[in-house]
Amino acid sequence: MNFLLDQMSFITMSCAAKYYFTSNQEAEGEASVFESIHLSNFKHAGSIAFGSFIHTVLYVFHILNEMLQQAAGESENPVAKCIACVLGCFLACLEALIEWLTTLSYAMMGISGDGYCTSAWSGFILNLKHCVKFYMAVHIARLFVVLGMLAVVAANCITCYVFMLKVFPEAMQVSSMQSPILTVGVITFLTTLVFMGPFNDAVVATLLCFAVDLELNNGDPKFGPPSY
After folding, report:
1. Helical H segments across 113-130, by residue range
2. 81-115: buried (b, 16+ CB within 10 Å) or exposed (e) per residue?
3. CA-CA distance, 158 to 13, in Å (whole number)?
4. Over the chain (228 residues), what is each successive 10-residue block's mean pLDDT?
5. Structure confidence at residue 67 (pLDDT)
6. Which residues have C-beta within 8 Å of that of residue 153, sequence separation ≥ 6?
7. How far apart are CA 223 and CA 228, in angstroms?
């Protein structure tokens, strides 16, 4: 499951990188999804497998930590509770760090074609140099994704209510209108999560492309769509 999720992230980032570096001030570029799928299944399959293996190991440690936290909570020993708390914070920090490094690695893989470790280091250095831009853009993108998802869910729920009220008046005979509206909301949320979730990966990849463009052209980027 981790391999498939990481593969989806790489495909999104590879397409974003291809689009960025085939675009310029005169015209927008293009990207092939099938080409990115081919890269993820052949050239970079080993790197994606390595990254997903790290995710799996972290997940196992996460489960063990949950068991330790539960055992410490049932214990009367304050030292054990303190150790479990510190260990839990350390593992959470480590998990977030490796998750971010893996994201940067997949983005750099889509740009440079290097392996996992080389791409992770290159992405980490670029992230340090342009960390303020990265931090602001990624969080703004996440905010827009959340707002977009909430807007779509709300619009679908309102549409469902209007249809039940005006188009299908027999729907008013049901004992509760909340259940079908809630069902529509849940299905809409899952659908928007699938289609809008990769937007965050595309933002990270585009930011790294912009950083690489700045580095290669001495602060004067040459690529990117005309809107840049």
Report:
1. 116-129
2. beebeebbeebeeebeebebbbbbbbbbbbbeebe
3. 34
4. 91 93 89 93 93 89 83 78 84 87 91 91 87 78 87 93 79 75 92 84 88 85 84
5. 84
6. 185, 188, 189, 192
7. 9
Return the residue matching tokens 């188009």. 167
Backbone angles phi, psi at 32, to 5 degrees: -105, 120
- Return the amino acid letter for 54: I
145: tokens are 């994704």
Give the pLDDT of residue 171: 63
Q: What pTM was computed for the model?
A: 0.80
Closest CA to 55 of 89, 102, 15, 11: 102
The reported pLDDT for the residue numbered 16 is 93
- Per-residue exposure over 4-22, b if at least 16 CB sit within 10 Å of its own CB, e if not: eebbbbbbbbbbbbbbbbe
Q: How many CA atoms lie within 13 A of 228 on its CB side?
A: 20
C-alpha 29/C-alpha 16 separation (Å) is: 10
Q: Do the Cβ atoms of 42 and 138 come closer than 8 Å? A: no
